[in-house]
């Protein structure tokens, strides 16, 4: 399940110094994905597996210093019960809060984690207009369910939008906005060309587009705090 571990990160858990656990496998294929080594079989097969026991030892060693644990991927929720068990062990054995990153494709698992009270923070990627999820291999019905579950805990959720021009046009944003009512935090993330799944280099948006997007969100979602990661 786990192919990577970073002992200390200052940027992955809002307001906390955290360790980061990287799971492999993903059920989406976003062209701008830069986690190729966790998504493409020929790549992740080259990486060695890290056991959950090893990870718990590493977390335990750092417990005085780190204030949280981030689980990211790939798509961590594809690991189902095994992921839930890992989160339970971190929560009960190590006693650290956990943030989970997801593409939103497993609403049942998110519901279970919230119901058990073992998730401190959830980051959900909102990739494109609902009508276009099929282009990245996703089923928006599931993502919509996840968004509806997450809405009940807005203070514990961040929605992340990566501004990859072919998937996030002004029209796409307008079609995404109705699903974002009642959330508290929305992060705008810059797409960075480079070593991505799609080999064609597409230039990112200019600052003008972000300003336009911010104005759009302020108009239709005035209650939301926009976090800029440009
Ligand atoms: S959901 Fe995340 S890990 Fe999966 S392909 Fe998209 S960007 Fe990559």
UniProtKB/TrEMBL annotation:
Its cofactor is [4Fe-4S] cluster. Residues 12-230 form the Radical SAM core domain. InterPro entries: Aldolase_TIM, Elp3/MiaA/NifB-like_rSAM, NrdG2, Organic_radical-activating, rSAM, rSAM_sf. Signal peptide: none annotated. CDD domains: Radical_SAM. Pfam families: Radical_SAM. The keyword Iron applies. GO terms for molecular function: 4 iron, 4 sulfur cluster binding; catalytic activity; metal ion binding. NCBIfam families: NrdG2. This is Anaerobic ribonucleoside-triphosphate reductase activating protein.
